[in-house]
Description:
Layout: E1 6-10, H1 11-24, E2 29-30, E3 32-33, H2 35-39, H3 43-50, E4 56-59, H4 62-70, E5 76-79, H5 87-95, E6 97-101, H6 104-112, E7 119-122, H7 137-146, E8 153-155, H8 168-180, E9 187-191, E10 206-207, E11 233-245, E12 250-251, E13 257-258, E14 263-268, E15 285-288, E16 291-296, E17 304-307, E18 319-323, H9 329-336, H10 340-346, E19 353-356
EC number: 5.1.1.1
GO molecular function, one term: pyridoxal phosphate binding
Binding site for substrate: 129, 301
Amino acid sequence: MPRPTIAHVDLDALRHNYRLARERAGDASAMAVIKADGYGHGIRAVARALAADVSCFAVACLEEAQAIRDEGLNQTVVLLQGMHSEADVATCACLGVEVVVHSDYQLQWVIDSPDRPTLWIKVNSGMNRLGFRPSELAGVMARADQGGCRPKGFLTHFASADEPESPVTEAQTRVFNEAVAPWPDLLRSVGNSAAHFRPGQPLFHWSRPGIMLYGASPLGDRDSNVLGLKPVMTLASELIAVRTLQPGDSVGYGQTWTADRPTPMGIVAIGYGDGYPRHAGTDTPAWVNGQRIRLIGRVSMDMLAVDLSAAPAAQPGDKVELWGANVLIDEVARHAGTIGYELLTGVTARVPRRYRG
Length: 357
């Protein structure tokens, strides 16, 4: 028998979330960001599921673009992080992949190549990771023109769109808009998932929804269900042991939790070796037999302990939801001191994905 730990993936929920992103994008089109193996959901299955609705995918690396093409899909694919070697230029052109250029050396690779993929120019509007500063754009565009390259558009990335009260996103939007104003005929893309929920935020021609597609909240102050998103992944396992702890009994490494009363306790076959966060710890919610329960003690590599006081009839073999429709991934992330992005992309390869819808 295989281990009972499974990541169930609801492709209907994925499509619902994309359609919500497209609706919230208004006049902009929405390119679906499916990097990091479709945020841990399986890039091939995600791409196939969205193919009827999506005209443009965005990925981080060339291997992800290749996976989309290997599925026989001919949608536009944008390579957000750009090329990592000069040899990638010809590969991108062959695959029909549009390339984001964020540095001089990448632009030179394209100029020097007989194979010319379509280009987007990354603008550093204030995040200060990648991209050309606004003062550099005139020179970049002149070099591209002289080299026979006509970029398709400009994009930038927001640093604080998930913080509704922060003035940074408005400032970045202004910087970007002013920087690209000399080229009004080229496309513009600025909007990550969080930007779709900012009132009055311009998204220009293309938005780039990512985490919201998978049913996790892109905002720090609102959970996904409040935003109308549906959870796509349900991470589930089973109880493999049930016993009653007596007052004074501890459970798990370091004995970080000790019973102060008789406590029904269950062991669940999942741990940080599966990608469940080790730092979740006591009081992190889970769900069994229609009841919310809580973790107790430390998460181990292959198992964790739960307090079954709210579900005293639970037995070995009962299904346990670690996150999904009943326990939002946003809740688990808060208990673990992280974000839903890390949890979804951290589910390891030993956890099989099972698709429905």
